């Protein structure tokens, strides 16, 4: 099990921060990298000619390592929504088919298809939130539903952001593929924690940002693109997306053919002096610790939370159905609307999400945090 990494963060001992699923604190080293990068932008004449390319290739490699991908299959993008919009442009959902989404999923893997459905002639089917938290069974049942329209696409998060339900993605991917369906995975709440191997999973697209679980900044995200979709037209028309459009060349538009691999889908203005290195460093830290040690630590913390809250009247999803790093409390009589504020007044932080209280520890949390949360929760909620 990974030891607590609190010393690598600027978190006072009296702060109990259980809200990584909203945004994680930046490690001190990542903060330092950002400050140094601001200085570089202040004196750009000192930058080497290869600086930009080295930065984004480092980030691409770091992202690929977290999901078992080859760097050539990863695009640099600013957000999950950007990636889903790219997929919507590249991938054609057959007319008369259906697209499966999760109830109350993140907007990104849902709204793109809702906005395209009427014109493209497909329907969007919502998998309702299961009462027992078993999202996997609910999705598999929807995939196999008899007398349904053909399945064109499954576009889902691999961990539901509101209740922490964890989907068995290999089973979902296998079932979708058996129906001839494409698969898009929003892995926002998964990458860096549970092990993901895109070569085994074989999604059409898998997308994640850096500002939550992989300890990076806002505005940086990464998209795995299966090779079968690497011949599409990108969302933006940029010089780096082409094989040879370069200001340094004697002929500017020398080769307008699109670049090979997922690089053609890179965002415009990808040369981020400030945030690209920060994103790479956070991802490298997560990869260095490893999925199993991280999962062991976070499972221990959420199990301890569940045990400590066992007799307080709240309900949680069964351990075998929930993610190891998200514990969502359901209140049978409804959550008091001021509960998060009462907790925050005691320097204890968790997030209200769709009537639940979502608790999301990370590598900087320890048993003392858990015990303090339970103590304060009982004090202000009961």
> Which residue ranges are poorly predicted, with pLDDT under 50 across at least 5 consecutive positions?
none
Strand content: 15-25%
Using the alpha-carbon principal axes, give the shape: globular
Radius of gyration: 22 Å
Helix and strand element order: EHHEHEHEHEHEHEEEEHHEHEEEH
Number of helices: 11
The number of distinct β-strands equals 14
Query: Distance between the terminal alpha carbons, to the nearest Å?
Result: 33 Å
Strands side by side in the biggest sheet: 2-8-7-6-5-3-4
Largest sheet, in brief, is: 7 strands, mixed
Structural class, from secondary structure content? Answer: alpha/beta
**What's the mean pLDDT score?**
96
Helical content stands at: 25-40%
Report what the structure shows:
The chain is α/β, with parallel strands linked by helices and 382 residues long. Helix content is 35%, strand content 16%. It has 11 helices and 14 strands. It has helices spanning 28-42, 51-67, 80-90, 108-120, 135-143, 169-178, 198-201, 275-289, 291-308, 339-345, 367-381, and strands spanning 16-17, 74-77, 98-102, 123-127, 151-157, 182-186, 205-209, 221-225, 242-245, 253-258, 327-330, 348-349, 351-353, 356-359. Strands 2-8-7-6-5-3-4 form a 7-stranded mixed β-sheet, with helices on both faces. Strand 3 (98-102), helix 4 and strand 4 form a beta-alpha-beta unit. Helix 1 (28-42) packs antiparallel against helix 8 (275-289) and helix 2 (51-67) runs parallel beside helix 8 (275-289). It is globular and about 70 Å long. The model has no long low-confidence stretch (mean pLDDT 96).
């Amino acid at each position: 099990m990974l030891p607590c990494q609190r010393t690598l963060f600027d978190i006072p001992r009296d702060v109990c921060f259980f809200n990584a699923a909203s945004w994680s604190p930046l490690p001190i080293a990542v903060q330092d990298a950002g400050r140094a990068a601001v200085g570089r932008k202040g004196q750009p004449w000192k930058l080497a000619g290869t600086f930009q390319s080295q930065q984004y290739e480092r980030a691409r490699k770091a992202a690929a390592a977290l999901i078992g991908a080859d760097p050539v299959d990863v695009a640099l993008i600013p957000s999950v929504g950007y990636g889903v919009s790219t997929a919507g442009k590249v991938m054609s959902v057959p007319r008369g088919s259906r697209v499966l989404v999760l109830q109350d999923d993140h907007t990104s893997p849902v709204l793109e298809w809702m906005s395209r459905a009427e014109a493209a002639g497909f329907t969007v089917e919502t998998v309702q939130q299961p009462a027992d938290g078993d999202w996997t069974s609910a999705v598999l049942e929807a995939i196999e539903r008899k007398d349904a329209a053909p399945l064109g696409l499954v576009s889902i998060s691999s961990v539901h952001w509101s209740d922490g339900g964890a989907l068995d993605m290999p089973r979902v991917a296998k079932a979708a593929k058996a129906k001839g369906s494409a698969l898009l995975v929003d892995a926002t709440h998964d990458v860096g924690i549970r092990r993901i191997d895109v070569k085994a999973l074989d999604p059409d697209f898998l997308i994640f940002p850096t500002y939550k679980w992989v300890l990076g900044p806002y505005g940086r995200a990464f998209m795995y693109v299966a090779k079968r979709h690497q011949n599409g037209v990108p969302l933006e028309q940029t010089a780096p997306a082409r094989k040879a459009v370069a200001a340094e060349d004697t002929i500017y538009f020398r080769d307008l053919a699109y670049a090979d691999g997922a690089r053609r889908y890179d965002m415009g203005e990808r040369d981020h002096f400030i945030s690209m290195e920060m994103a790479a460093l956070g991802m490298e830290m997560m990869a260095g610790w490893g999925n199993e040690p991280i999962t062991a630590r976070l499972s221990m913390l959420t199990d301890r939370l569940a045990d400590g809250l066992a007799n307080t009247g709240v309900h949680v999803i069964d351990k075998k159905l929930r993610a190891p790093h998200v514990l969502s409390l359901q209140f049978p009589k409804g959550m008091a609307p001021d509960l998060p504020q009462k907790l925050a007044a005691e320097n204890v932080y968790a997030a209200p999400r769709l009537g639940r209280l979502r608790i999301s520890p990370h590598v900087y949390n320890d048993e003392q945090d858990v015990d303090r949360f339970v103590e304060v929760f009982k004090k202000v909620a009961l």
